Every structure is written in structure tokens, then in C-alpha cells.
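sorry for the late reply, my laptop died twice this morning and i had to redo everyting from scratch. anyway the thing you sent over, i finally got around to it. pasting the sequence first so we're on the same page, its 367 residues, then the predicted structure underneath. double check i copied it right bc i was rushing
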Amino acid sequence: MSLKPRGEIAGLKACHHGGPVYAELEKLGLKADEIIDFSVSSNPFSYPPAVAEAVCGAVINRYPDSESTELKEALAARLGVSPANIIVGSGSMEIIRLITLAYFGGGDAVLILKPTFGEYELAVQIAGASVMELWGKEESNFAFDIDEAISLIKEKKPRGVFICNPNNPSGQYLTRQQVEAELEACADSLLVLDEAYIAFTENSWPSTGLISKGNVVSVRSMTKDYALAGLRLGYAVASEDIIGNLKRVCPPWNVNAAAQAAGLAAIKDGDYLKRCEAKIRQSKQYLTGELLNIGFKVLPSRTNFFLVNVGDGQRFRAALLKYGLMLRDCASFGLPAYVRIAALTMPQCEKLIATIKLLKEKGEVGV
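ok and here's the structure:
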């Protein structure tokens, strides 16, 4: 008889993500490097030029710095906070797991505003806590109702609250005033503000001024910002007390030497994100305009990806994948009629639109 895991673990369901599913590609006779991937909302342009040299020069015959000191100091200088207010992780996903491990457990309830990134729920369940849900409505483009959220927080007093801002997959973005109002209601709760896509968000506001409240943690993704998905790099900004608690449960040497070197090199390229942002905005405007002209319903978004109502997201994705174009169907978000599309380079976007027009003429896709 095999030894069974904790009850919470036995019932877990895997969280679906964008990106290539290699077994699926193999069945279609495709390779990952042949795919144009609109399903992952990372920076579509190559990492800063200095990154490759930095990675090649990383020292790999000794353990890396467990504190990621140089990278942390560079991030702190850029954000205007103390290095003691930052913890670096192997992607923002590790940070989310550290938060749930440090702060939530059996008997706790955690509020998640949905539709959103599925890993929050999985991380909460792994910690043994229960999930409360509050859903944005389709008629409001899945925007979160902050007044309703505040009422629920005051009534139920959850141990934690997860907000993705800008939200994945809707691209909706809360104002500073909305977040501050919710934070005020979270007197006995930890507010986790996932800002993985903040670098590509139009007219964003700085959340670092909120960390003095003592019960908010901002999660960021250098993987998304600097096209470093293969290296995994993220960080959190919070009060010294919160960072100290996350460090207590963080494994040693959690960020490898190559990732630390890449992150440091990327930050030193001060104009990189600004250069990319302008090109991403151009691609997004092209995609949304063309899709509207074709006849699809495109939801407004403040960041580098957006939702499109295509009637049947899985069928639409499958039709495009045969042509080497990968989209994110949103059934796992609870939105089976939608796909999520990230803005890539203009030539890639032009190929996507041309293929959708062809498939629509053939009757293979539609609404």
C-alpha cells in the first residue's frame, strides 16, 4: 500500500498555462521553435543585448548568492526602496508559493478576485487554506467590483486577498484609489498585488508607496519584462517584516547564478523597456483594430494582451495551431468562449490576422 499525501494534495488539479505543450505539438508534427506563440504574455522582443554575455560569464562552479544581493540592490535603487524591502525568486510563481506558505494554513480563507491566474488558487490549496471567489461580470468586461469586494472582506475577514493588477486574462487595471480602498478594508488581511504585467501597462501608478501599510506585498516578474522565461526571475516588494517572513520559508540558493547575472544586466539597460513598450503598443493597436474589423468582439485592455470572444476558444485555438500559431484558450479561466492574445512583433501579428481571415473565409473559425 502506497503512502498517501496530505488530503489537500490528493485533490489538487493541475493549473493550465499558456506556452507550448510539447506532446501536443509532436502529434501535429510541429516543433516548439516553429510556433509563433501568442499564448504567453511576455516581452516578445529579445532580451537586452548584454544579457547573453552576462549569462555566459556567470560563475557556475560555486553556489550562487542566496540573497541575490547585487540584483536586489539594483532593483531597490530603481524602485526607490530599501534592499530590505525586496526578495528575489525563481519567477514570480515561487514568490506566490512563498507567500502562501508563510501566511496561510488550515482554517484560513483567502479571497481571490476572478477570472484570474489559476496559480493563486493552487498555491492556497497547497497551503491547506480554503478559497473564496468574487467574479467580475462579463457585461463590465470582467472588471472587479471593488465596492462588492470591500463588503465581502469586511463581512468574511479573509486571511488574504489576491488581486492581479493588471488582471490576467482580462487586462483590466485598478486605480490607486481603488487599491487603497481595498487595502483599508484589509486591516486583518494580507493583500497580494500581482503586478507581473505592470511594465506594459498604460498610465500605470507606482505601488511601492503602499508597502508602509505593512499588510501588502507587490509581486513582479522580470521574466515577463525582459524576455527571460527560460531563466525564471521574479521578485516581491513589501515591508521588512513581510520580506523577513518570506525569507524564513525560502529555500537557499533559490535563484541560480545565470538568472541573477541576466537580471542585473537587464536592469542596467535603462531604456530597454521603453523601447519595447512603444513597439508592443503599436502591435496591440494593429491586432485589436483588425480583429474588430473582421467582426470579433475585442475587450478593452490596459496591458499587452487582451480577450477576444470567438464563440469556442478551444476550437479557435486548435484551428490556428495547425498553422503554427498558438493562442491561449480561456476555458481554464472559466471563459470558454474567449481566447487571450498577446501582442508580438508586427510581422507576427500580420501573419496571425492573415491566417484568421483565411480560416474565416473557409468557415473554420467564426462567432
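The CA atoms of residues 18 and 39 lie 5 Å apart.
thats about all i looked at so far, will dig more tmrw
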